[in-house]
Amino acid sequence: KNQVEQSPQSLIILEGKNCTLQCNYTVSPFSNLRWYKQDTGRGPVSLTIMTFSENTKSNGRYTATLDADTKQSSLHITASQLSDSASYICVVHDRGSTLGRLYFGRGTQLTVWP
Amino acid sequence: EADIYQTPRYLVIGTGKKITLECSQTMGHDKMYWYQQDPGMELHLIHYSYGVNSTEKGDLSSESTVSRIRTEHFPLTLESARPSHTSQYLCASTGLASPNEQFFGPGTRLTVL
What we know:
The complex is a heterodimer of chains A (114) and B (113).
Chain A: E1 4-7, E2 10-14, E3 19-25, E4 30-38, E5 45-51, E6 56-59, E7 62-67, E8 72-77, E9 86-94, E10 102-104, E11 108-113
Parallel strand pairs in A: 2-11
Antiparallel strand pairs in A: 1-3, 3-8, 4-5, 4-9, 6-7, 7-8, 9-10, 9-11
Chain B: E1 4-7, E2 10-13, E3 19-25, E4 31-37, E5 44-51, E6 54-57, E7 65-66, E8 76-78, E9 87-94, E10 103-104, E11 108-112
Parallel strand pairs in B: 2-11
Antiparallel strand pairs in B: 1-3, 3-8, 4-5, 4-9, 5-6, 7-8, 9-10, 9-11
């Protein structure tokens, strides 16, 4: 059973609009959570990392939140651009693993229309 | 942009052929990984390496094999490709400076006919 669930599976928005992507996880013990952006035909690229003590972190137009109590994270994108069209993947790091075990969500496919 | 490279980017081959997917990184990272990703699905770890001469199988069973003779190089080999091997293969690496972040290559899209 996948321990990282993302919603929605896909999303279409108009350029300039905001959107919020959700990530729920059951990974324990928790170390950190990353949001990756994966353009079509490319490898994922890290956008933000959230540790246990962090609630909010921004990276330009991307703002990630983390509620470690409810095991939920969100990624908010403001003033969307066409280049934001990509898959956004939530990845949770298991603190208990020496490998640096990562649990991947299936991603939210975002499409920004002009 | 991470300094991790994969070749070829796209490969279409016939069943039964032997193939090697190349992965190289110039960051001096010790840990390297191979993932398999199907459309709309999560990444699945198929192989990893802690360093030279260290290789382990990941969570997803795979008929592929890997080798790690040099720190910067982590090739993946399929002795006899089958249509079920059709997928995207992503290579990643991790360094001591940022042990929780995996840097990904651009991927190889493999199609076996």
